[in-house]
Amino acid sequence: MNGRSGGTDAETPLLEARDLHVEFNARGRRARAVDGVNLAVGRREIVALVGESGCGKTTLARTLLGLERPTSGEVRYDGAPLNYSSRALKAYRREVQLVLQDPMGSLNPRHTVYEAVAEGPRIHGMADEHERVVSALSRAGLRPPERFLQSYPHELSGGQRQRVVIAGALALDPGVLIADEPVASLDASVRGEILALLLRLRDELGLSALVVTHDLGLAWNIADRVAVMYLGRIVEAGPVEQILTSPSHPYTQALLSVLPESPEPVVLGGEPPDPTRIPGGCRFHPRCQVLASGAAAEAGVDGRCRSQLLDILPAAPSSGEAHVACHYAEATTPARS
């Protein structure tokens, strides 16, 4: 792996979103899918982006990959703003690779493993194709790689297919993997192996990763930092141990409550996130269990919850700090805001 210093210092995030906004026209209404996000992935760091379906995390991931153009704000790689010219995007997509959740859908059933992994190096005109394919398969845990070269996807297990997808990314020597629900389609017995592989790639190759997931348990097992997204914004972010053992935002608390070891699940009321109908005040307040219970009123912040906008959270790459966008948390635990 190269160090990807790019002339920048080691504290510069490798991948960063700065005040990112992405809007779409949805049936004549404006959908604010990403509504002001600061997010940073440091070097040799795994960040988990967590939230329920519809929160905007997939749109954010696509924008970080250069597949969507932001309405405002910017994506930066190695300290430089993303250039959207065709040539620049091609070079960028060698550096930032996507790993999807459905390996069967990602792989052409008519292509052998060799052809699947060689596709990226061919597109980018890279030399030593055979050596790259064999090395990538080996690093992805398919050993001996020669055993798999002429296999077809239907001849492999689900875990092996996901390793082929990862090998296809590794063949390009990327700096960052963006993994969208990388183990969601796998059996429980295989999930741990793929997560261990991602950790090993971080440790041995210096890879960074953004893991997009709805599963806070997965975040606990793999991430250095976690960012919790709700209705287009990061509402809580920080070191994974701090956020997941002592969450400040009611939404994070609700997500954690569905884990098996939690004493009592929090059932959220109201409507699921709708990016065409973002409420005033705290965007979570129509479903907030703290507001519904009267605890926010006791803290004297219920009016603010319903009417006062919250600041966009900073990216805080590798700073060790946690941040939360919540009037109640600010009133009761000011050190966390």
From TrEMBL:
Key words of the record: ATP-binding, Nucleotide-binding, Transport
InterPro entries, per the entry: AAA+_ATPase, ABC_transp_ATP-bind, ABC_transporter-like_ATP-bd, ABC_transporter-like_CS, Oligopep_ABC_C, P-loop_NTPase
GO molecular function, one term: ATP hydrolysis activity
GO biological process terms, semicolon-separated: peptide transport; transmembrane transport
One Pfam family linked to the record: ABC_tran
UniProt similarity note: Belongs to the ABC transporter superfamily.
Name under which the protein is recorded: Peptide/nickel transport system ATP-binding protein
